[in-house]
Design a protein that fits this description.
It is a single chain. The chain is of the alpha/beta class. It has two domains: 3-221, Mur-like, catalytic domain (UDP-N-acetylmuramoyl-L-alanine:D-glutamate ligase), CATH 3.40.1190; 222-266, no CATH class. The protein is built from nine helices and eleven strands. Helix 1 crosses helix 4 and helix 7 runs parallel beside helix 8 (202-214). The longest helix is centred in the middle third of the chain and has 20 residues, at 92-111. The N and C termini lie far apart (41 Å). The mean pLDDT is 92.
């Protein structure tokens, strides 16, 4: 399989639609030897700021010298943007290699009477195989939709679960109230894990707090009062911040938007 064949195969599975649930991805990854079990994850869910937050986390880890995978969706220019390592898109040859394995395992699934995986499930499986092959130190894993039944939630114990600001989105799949949507997003919280959340509307925060308590997870909520914006523009933002009782002055990020300074802290 070459790159063009890999892309054609992945996109051909779009016809199987979108569906929530972990049965298919669990079965597929088991046939692949459960590559996700050999990786360490930072799992990011939410409605707004998922991409920015994932990029911040990835950048910080790379600055410390780690090999960092970044799994996001959708892409802007080329499909390879969805699966990144060390700040670079997956190489065409690597995409073809991992896709060829996934397709073989999908064929085996179908022969055993299982439903065909969705496009997102297949892309998730491709990413897991690639990051395992590359021995990534960490993988920043952005949820596709929701959280609880999203195929990325196949991971058993992330290092940290991150929940960005929650708002109304994908109401046809996730529910038509903020509480219902928050319930789905909070589904990434695992037992006795660490959870970091952006400030949330009360209706959403209540759901997150309840989920963390039920699973004996340690929840930290970012405090916007600890951030003071100095200046912002199309070039990015400058701000002061207090973190762990230590003050930091004149911090700068290159992402535009006044909201980015808070996202950079959690």
């Amino acid at each position: 399989m070459n790159y063009e064949e890999a892309i054609a195969y992945i996109h051909s599975t779009y016809r199987f639609g979108s569906k929530l649930g972990l049965e298919n991805i669990r079965y597929l990854l088991k046939l692949m030897g459960n590559p996700q079990s050999e990786l360490r994850f930072i799992h990011v869910a939410g409605t707004n700021g998922k991409g920015s937050t994932s990029a911040f986390i990835s950048s910080v880890l790379m600055e410390e010298g780690y090999s960092v995978g970044l799994f996001t969706s959708p892409y802007l220019e080329v499909f390879n943007e969805r699966i990144r390592l060390g700040g670079n898109n997956i190489e065409n040859a690597d995409l073809a290699t991992s896709t060829e394995l996934v397709r073989a395992m999908v064929d085996r699934m179908l022969a055993q009477g299982m439903p065909h995986p969705t496009e997102f499930e297949i892309v998730t499986a491709v990413a897991m195989d690639f990051y395992k092959r590359q021995k990534a130190d960490f993988v920043v894993l952005e949820v596709g939709m929701g959280g609880r039944l999203d195929s990325t939630n196949i991971i058993e114990r992330p290092l940290i679960s991150v929940i960005t600001p929650i708002a109304m989105d994908h109401t046809d799949y996730l529910g038509d109230t903020l509480a219902q949507i928050a319930f789905e997003k909070a589904g990434i919280i695992k037992a006795k894990s660490l959870v970091v959340s952006a400030p949330q509307l009360p209706e959403a925060l209540e759901v997150i707090e309840r989920a963390a308590e039920e699973r004996s997870a340690c929840l930290m909520v970012a405090d916007p009062s600890r951030v003071t914006l100095r200046d912002s523009g199309i070039w990015g933002a400058r701000f002061d911040a207090v973190f762990a009782d230590e003050g930091f002055e004149d911090l700068e990020i290159s992402l535009a938007g006044q909201h980015q300074d808070l996202l950079a802290l959690f």
